[in-house]
Amino acid sequence: MKPMLLVMLAGFVVVVANDRMRRNEFAATSSVQGVLEGTYSESVVESQAREDTRAARMEAAPSPNSVEGDMIMTLEQEEEYMVVQEATAENKTRIRRSGATAFKGWPNGTLVYTYAADVSSHTKLLFEKAIKKYKEKTGIQFVEAHDGSYVGTIQPLTVRQRGAGCYATLGCVGVNCGGFINLQKYACEVIGVMLHEIGHALGRFHEHTRSDRDNHIFVIRSNIRPGFEKNFEKRQWPIVAPYDSHSVMHYAALAYSRDGVSETIFPYNARDRLKMGRQSELTRLDAYSINAAYNLFECSSPENVWKRCRRGGVPNKHCTCDCLPTFSGPYCETFEKPTDCSQIHTRRSGTITSPGFPRRYPNNAHCTYVIECSEKSLVELRFKNFRLEAGNCWYDTLSIFMGVLESETYPDVYCGNFLQGQLLVSFDNVVIMDFKSDSGIRFPGFEVKYRCVPTYY
């Protein structure tokens, strides 16, 4: 097999159904989304994401001689990468041809790597954990080239800890690959950093530079640190998957902020503000993009699997669908009821309450509630009552998936009285709510009215 072209280059089929894209754009621009500001609590998400966002903070610290802070390119790659910023209908074909020369994937979907002598045992352990996540979700093979035993013709990628910075070369560099990932001691010893830099080494670019990003995020240029504006320019590579604000390749909201507190990226789904840049997991769309780039699916037409995936399912390497929690089956068609109190609601409106409401909910409860509206609808939630134990959401919680389902990885987590009297509107036609209580203090719980809202596009 010849080396595959990178994720953003020519030769891939756009497989996102048009109705999905229209629905997501409707949700992003609908006036009802204004209520999101009143329901967002940074402390809720932040308390559970400090270590994850540390990875994003390190990537926003520019590394020497890098593009966009952490990509090390050859002169040919850098020239080509800057050209795509000005891509037009007239020169697009030429750009794709030259891009195929400048950017290559690893032959046969196999990344060969080796550790430099300066790499600590702790870094090796974390790096192997990051590799394991890629192995589980993608068809990429990782082969460690041990000194004296490796006889392959491909030059290994060197994992090293030389000086400051977290950065990587992009894809297969030169004729026989090679390249490196640099992981500064202590600062870059975070699994999120490693997932991100392995992505670059496999040939992935930053998600926020996609040409369609303006449908999903707003870049606040006045808040960008002077001299780093180019890190936020859009690139005209073909799109192969839905936009993924939870991707390990996405910048955080404060990336390259001029003062460290002014946001440079604001998502149209305000609930994603602190989920951008978390990077603790390889998302389902991360895996899909890599499998598409390297043609690692076990079927010839993964786009046909997209058509069959339900409830936010994403085609995986086995040509079935990776599902959100509580759904299963080849195409996410089955609702897995984890406990007796779990429910699925398919009527156009109704009421959902915590166990025993309005009395105090029991200890160690776990109830999953799914609301499923028709395809061209969104879900509106009105919380008439909401009283859970607070404490930064370490104890009793209501976790909700209600963004664009195929790009959901991290739920919105609520506790205390954050949702009392609030209105939430989903970005898709299915909402998943997961309620958990611990063995300590009990509270009255919640009462939420839901209804299906037609989108009329």
UniProtKB/TrEMBL annotation:
CUB domain residues: 341-453
Residues in the signal sequence: 1-17
Cofactor section: Zn(2+)
PROSITE patterns according to UniProt: ASTACIN, CUB
Region span, Disordered: 46-67
Top enzyme class: hydrolase
Span of domain Peptidase M12A: 101-300
Keywords: Disulfide bond, Hydrolase, Metal-binding, Metalloprotease, Protease, Signal, Zinc
Positions annotated to bind Zn(2+): H196, H200, H206
InterPro entries noted in UniProt: CUB_dom (IPR000859), MetalloPept_cat_dom_sf (IPR024079), Peptidase_M12A (IPR001506), Peptidase_Metallo (IPR006026), Sperma_CUB_dom_sf (IPR035914)
Pfam families from the UniProt entry: Astacin, CUB
Gene Ontology MF annotations: metalloendopeptidase activity; zinc ion binding
The record's free-text note on cofactor binding: Binds 1 zinc ion per subunit.
Record-annotated active site: E197
Compositional bias segments (type: Basic and acidic residues): 48-57
GO biological process: proteolysis
Residue pairs linked by disulfide bridges in the UniProt entry: C166-C188
EC number: 3.4.24.-
Keyword field contains Disulfide bond: yes
Family matches, as PANTHER family: DISCOIDIN, CUB, EGF, LAMININ , AND ZINC METALLOPROTEASE DOMAIN CONTAINING, METALLOENDOPEPTIDASE
Protein name: Metalloendopeptidase
Organism of origin: Acanthaster planci
